[in-house]
Amino acid sequence: MIQFNARASDALLIIDVQNDFCTAGALAVPEGETVVPLVNQLATQFSTVIATQDWHPAGHSSFASSHAAHEPFSTIKMPYGEQTLWPDHCIQNSHGAEFHSDLELEHIQCIVRKGFRNEVDSYSAFYENDKKTTTGLSGLLHERNVKRVVCVGLAYDFCVRFSAEDAHQEGFETIVLADACRAIDLEGSAEAATQALSDLGVSIR
Ligand code: VGL
Ligand code: ZN
Question: What residue numbers bound the domain in which 25 lies?
Fold first, then answer.
Protein backbone atom coordinates (compact mmCIF):
# COMPACT_ATOMS: atom_id res chain seq x y z
CA MET A 1 0.00 0.00 0.00
CA ILE A 2 1.44 3.36 -1.04
CA GLN A 3 0.51 6.07 1.44
CA PHE A 4 0.66 9.78 0.72
CA ASN A 5 -0.23 12.17 3.48
CA ALA A 6 -2.37 14.36 1.21
CA ARG A 7 -3.55 17.81 2.21
CA ALA A 8 -6.88 19.26 1.15
CA SER A 9 -4.97 21.64 -1.15
CA ASP A 10 -3.15 18.84 -2.99
CA ALA A 11 -4.01 17.53 -6.44
CA LEU A 12 -3.02 14.17 -7.88
CA LEU A 13 -2.10 14.49 -11.55
CA ILE A 14 -2.21 11.10 -13.31
CA ILE A 15 -0.35 11.28 -16.59
CA ASP A 16 -1.22 9.12 -19.63
CA VAL A 17 -1.94 5.73 -18.05
CA GLN A 18 -3.10 4.45 -21.43
CA ASN A 19 -2.83 1.13 -23.24
CA ASP A 20 -0.32 2.36 -25.81
CA PHE A 21 2.15 3.19 -23.01
CA CYS A 22 1.82 -0.25 -21.43
CA THR A 23 3.28 -3.63 -22.44
CA ALA A 24 2.26 -4.53 -26.03
CA GLY A 25 1.22 -0.94 -26.67
CA ALA A 26 2.35 1.07 -29.68
CA LEU A 27 4.77 3.16 -27.59
CA ALA A 28 5.27 0.72 -24.75
CA VAL A 29 6.99 2.07 -21.67
CA PRO A 30 8.84 -0.83 -19.96
CA GLU A 31 6.67 -2.01 -17.02
CA GLY A 32 4.23 0.82 -17.69
CA GLU A 33 1.24 -1.09 -16.33
CA THR A 34 2.96 -1.71 -12.99
CA VAL A 35 2.07 1.83 -11.90
CA VAL A 36 -1.67 1.14 -12.09
CA PRO A 37 -2.23 -0.39 -8.60
CA LEU A 38 -0.19 2.41 -7.01
CA VAL A 39 -2.08 5.09 -8.92
CA ASN A 40 -5.38 3.54 -7.83
CA GLN A 41 -4.30 3.54 -4.20
CA LEU A 42 -3.16 7.16 -4.40
CA ALA A 43 -6.33 8.31 -6.14
CA THR A 44 -8.43 7.42 -3.08
CA GLN A 45 -6.26 9.70 -0.90
CA PHE A 46 -6.63 13.02 -2.76
CA SER A 47 -9.57 15.42 -2.83
CA THR A 48 -8.61 16.60 -6.33
CA VAL A 49 -7.73 13.98 -8.95
CA ILE A 50 -7.02 14.90 -12.57
CA ALA A 51 -5.89 12.61 -15.38
CA THR A 52 -4.39 13.38 -18.77
CA GLN A 53 -5.06 11.42 -21.94
CA ASP A 54 -2.72 11.63 -24.92
CA TRP A 55 -5.21 12.05 -27.79
CA HIS A 56 -3.80 12.34 -31.29
CA PRO A 57 -5.60 12.53 -34.62
CA ALA A 58 -4.43 9.95 -37.20
CA GLY A 59 -1.50 11.39 -39.15
CA HIS A 60 -0.39 13.60 -36.23
CA SER A 61 2.77 15.62 -36.87
CA SER A 62 4.57 13.88 -33.96
CA PHE A 63 4.32 10.52 -35.75
CA ALA A 64 7.36 9.37 -37.73
CA SER A 65 4.90 7.92 -40.26
CA SER A 66 3.82 11.47 -41.11
CA HIS A 67 7.35 12.39 -42.25
CA ALA A 68 8.85 10.59 -45.24
CA ALA A 69 12.23 8.97 -44.49
CA HIS A 70 12.13 9.59 -40.75
CA GLU A 71 12.38 6.72 -38.31
CA PRO A 72 10.57 6.55 -34.98
CA PHE A 73 12.68 8.02 -32.16
CA SER A 74 14.57 10.34 -34.52
CA THR A 75 14.09 14.09 -34.16
CA ILE A 76 13.08 16.87 -36.52
CA LYS A 77 12.87 20.63 -36.34
CA MET A 78 9.33 21.93 -36.00
CA PRO A 79 8.43 25.65 -36.04
CA TYR A 80 8.29 25.49 -32.21
CA GLY A 81 11.58 23.61 -31.78
CA GLU A 82 13.03 20.12 -31.75
CA GLN A 83 10.46 17.32 -31.79
CA THR A 84 11.04 13.60 -31.23
CA LEU A 85 9.13 11.49 -33.75
CA TRP A 86 7.14 8.62 -32.26
CA PRO A 87 5.48 5.49 -33.53
CA ASP A 88 1.77 6.10 -34.18
CA HIS A 89 0.15 6.00 -30.73
CA CYS A 90 -2.91 7.10 -28.75
CA ILE A 91 -5.01 7.72 -31.83
CA GLN A 92 -8.38 9.20 -30.89
CA ASN A 93 -11.01 6.51 -30.17
CA SER A 94 -8.53 3.64 -30.57
CA HIS A 95 -7.98 0.92 -27.97
CA GLY A 96 -4.45 2.23 -27.49
CA ALA A 97 -5.76 5.62 -26.44
CA GLU A 98 -8.04 4.14 -23.77
CA PHE A 99 -6.97 4.20 -20.16
CA HIS A 100 -5.55 0.90 -18.89
CA SER A 101 -8.54 -1.26 -18.02
CA ASP A 102 -7.42 -1.62 -14.37
CA LEU A 103 -7.22 2.14 -13.82
CA GLU A 104 -10.12 3.05 -11.52
CA LEU A 105 -11.77 5.89 -13.37
CA GLU A 106 -14.34 6.65 -10.68
CA HIS A 107 -11.76 8.66 -8.70
CA ILE A 108 -10.89 10.87 -11.67
CA GLN A 109 -12.79 14.16 -11.65
CA CYS A 110 -11.43 15.75 -14.78
CA ILE A 111 -9.70 14.39 -17.88
CA VAL A 112 -7.41 16.72 -19.80
CA ARG A 113 -6.87 15.58 -23.36
CA LYS A 114 -3.76 16.78 -25.13
CA GLY A 115 -1.98 16.40 -28.44
CA PHE A 116 -5.18 16.78 -30.47
CA ARG A 117 -3.90 19.68 -32.59
CA ASN A 118 -2.26 18.20 -35.65
CA GLU A 119 0.58 20.70 -35.92
CA VAL A 120 1.88 20.68 -32.33
CA ASP A 121 2.64 17.88 -29.87
CA SER A 122 1.80 18.18 -26.20
CA TYR A 123 3.79 16.39 -23.50
CA SER A 124 2.75 18.58 -20.60
CA ALA A 125 -0.67 18.65 -18.97
CA PHE A 126 -0.38 22.46 -18.88
CA TYR A 127 1.20 23.67 -22.13
CA GLU A 128 1.67 22.17 -25.55
CA ASN A 129 5.20 21.81 -26.87
CA ASP A 130 5.11 25.33 -28.34
CA LYS A 131 5.14 26.44 -24.66
CA LYS A 132 2.33 28.91 -25.49
CA THR A 133 -0.88 26.98 -26.10
CA THR A 134 -2.49 26.29 -22.74
CA THR A 135 -4.75 23.41 -21.75
CA GLY A 136 -6.41 25.52 -19.06
CA LEU A 137 -5.32 23.13 -16.30
CA SER A 138 -3.45 25.80 -14.36
CA GLY A 139 -6.63 27.88 -14.07
CA LEU A 140 -8.67 24.89 -13.03
CA LEU A 141 -6.22 23.98 -10.26
CA HIS A 142 -5.88 27.57 -9.03
CA GLU A 143 -9.66 27.99 -8.94
CA ARG A 144 -9.88 24.87 -6.82
CA ASN A 145 -7.30 26.40 -4.45
CA VAL A 146 -4.78 23.70 -5.17
CA LYS A 147 -1.33 24.59 -3.85
CA ARG A 148 0.59 21.38 -4.45
CA VAL A 149 0.58 19.01 -7.42
CA VAL A 150 1.66 15.37 -7.11
CA CYS A 151 2.58 13.81 -10.46
CA VAL A 152 2.46 10.11 -11.33
CA GLY A 153 2.14 8.01 -14.48
CA LEU A 154 3.78 7.64 -17.90
CA ALA A 155 6.23 8.39 -19.18
CA TYR A 156 8.49 9.73 -16.45
CA ASP A 157 10.99 11.25 -18.88
CA PHE A 158 8.47 12.91 -21.22
CA CYS A 159 4.92 13.71 -20.18
CA VAL A 160 5.49 13.41 -16.42
CA ARG A 161 8.70 15.46 -16.62
CA PHE A 162 7.19 18.31 -18.64
CA SER A 163 3.98 18.33 -16.63
CA ALA A 164 5.97 18.61 -13.41
CA GLU A 165 8.18 21.37 -14.84
CA ASP A 166 5.11 23.35 -15.87
CA ALA A 167 3.33 22.72 -12.56
CA HIS A 168 6.35 24.24 -10.84
CA GLN A 169 6.43 27.11 -13.34
CA GLU A 170 2.72 27.79 -12.71
CA GLY A 171 3.44 28.31 -9.02
CA PHE A 172 2.49 24.94 -7.56
CA GLU A 173 4.71 23.12 -5.14
CA THR A 174 5.45 20.00 -7.18
CA ILE A 175 6.24 16.42 -6.23
CA VAL A 176 6.91 13.44 -8.51
CA LEU A 177 6.33 10.01 -6.97
CA ALA A 178 8.93 7.93 -8.80
CA ASP A 179 7.55 4.54 -7.73
CA ALA A 180 4.33 5.39 -9.55
CA CYS A 181 6.13 6.39 -12.78
CA ARG A 182 8.00 4.50 -15.50
CA ALA A 183 10.35 5.91 -18.15
CA ILE A 184 10.84 5.35 -21.88
CA ASP A 185 14.56 6.15 -21.41
CA LEU A 186 15.67 7.35 -24.82
CA GLU A 187 19.38 8.26 -24.87
CA GLY A 188 19.57 9.14 -21.22
CA SER A 189 16.22 10.92 -21.07
CA ALA A 190 15.35 9.46 -17.67
CA GLU A 191 18.55 10.79 -16.11
CA ALA A 192 18.03 14.12 -17.89
CA ALA A 193 14.52 14.35 -16.46
CA THR A 194 15.74 13.72 -12.92
CA GLN A 195 18.45 16.35 -13.38
CA ALA A 196 16.07 18.96 -14.82
CA LEU A 197 13.44 18.41 -12.12
CA SER A 198 16.01 18.46 -9.32
CA ASP A 199 17.51 21.69 -10.68
CA LEU A 200 14.07 23.33 -10.51
CA GLY A 201 13.50 22.16 -6.96
CA VAL A 202 10.79 19.65 -7.85
CA SER A 203 10.78 16.96 -5.20
CA ILE A 204 11.24 13.40 -6.52
CA ARG A 205 10.19 10.86 -3.91
C1 VGL B 1 4.30 10.58 -24.30
C2 VGL B 1 5.69 10.52 -26.12
C3 VGL B 1 4.66 10.88 -26.96
C4 VGL B 1 4.14 10.41 -22.83
C5 VGL B 1 3.25 10.95 -25.12
O6 VGL B 1 3.01 10.19 -22.35
O7 VGL B 1 5.16 10.49 -22.12
N8 VGL B 1 5.52 10.39 -24.81
N9 VGL B 1 3.44 11.08 -26.44
ZN1 ZN C 1 1.82 11.37 -27.80
Answer: 10-56+91-204
pTM score > 0.90 for this model?
A: yes
Return the closest-CA partner of residue 163 out of 135, 127, 136.
127
Burial (CB count within 10 angstroms: exposed 0-12, middle 13-18, buried 19+), residue 62: buried
In this structure, the residue with its CA closest to atom 8 of ligand 1 is 158
Instruction: Work out how many domains the chain is built from and give that number.
Output: 1
Q: Does any domain span residue 22? A: yes
Pocket of ligand 1, beta carbon within 6 A: 16, 21, 54, 86, 123, 154-155, 158-159
Does any domain span residue 86?
Answer: no
Instruction: Indicate whether 195 belongs to any domain.
Output: yes
Based on the residue annotation, tell me whether 147 is a catalytic residue of this protein: no
Residues 200/168, Cβ–Cβ less than 8 Å: yes
Task: Output the CA 57–ligand 2 centroid distance in Å.
Answer: 10
116 belongs to a structural domain: yes
88 tagged catalytic: no
Q: CA-CA distance, 28 to 149, in Å (whole number)?
A: 26
Q: What is the CATH number of the domain that holds 20?
A: 3.40.50.850
pLDDT in tens, 42-84: 999 999 999 999 999 999 999 999 999 999 999 999 999 999 9
Helix (H) or strand (E) holding 76: strand 75-78
